[in-house]
């Protein structure tokens, strides 16, 4: 084996410049932390939303089961209200953005 005059230099070379420890403490630690974070987000947030939709569907079905009246107008009204609520829910970000633009435009016209 080759001997270096300095013990520190000898240890640095003999342990491959500590690259395995450096790799473990930087890259592996960062990937492990990121994987744990995304796993938690998937487990509690994404799966929670999916489970919430399932529960809403079950409870909605249970409550609608008792509201059978035999009148097709009531069924049509329920469907139209449901589609309207879904449409408003899906368009809300766009509508709120449009409301800000209209408000800013009206404010600008009243000031200037």
UniProtKB/TrEMBL annotation:
Top-level taxon of the source organism: Bacteria
Keywords, in A-Z order: Membrane, Transmembrane, Transmembrane helix
Transmembrane segments: 44-62, 74-107
Protein name: NAD(P)H-quinone oxidoreductase subunit F
Organism: Oscillatoriales cyanobacterium SpSt-402
Lineage: Bacteria, Bacillati, Cyanobacteriota, Cyanophyceae, Oscillatoriophycideae
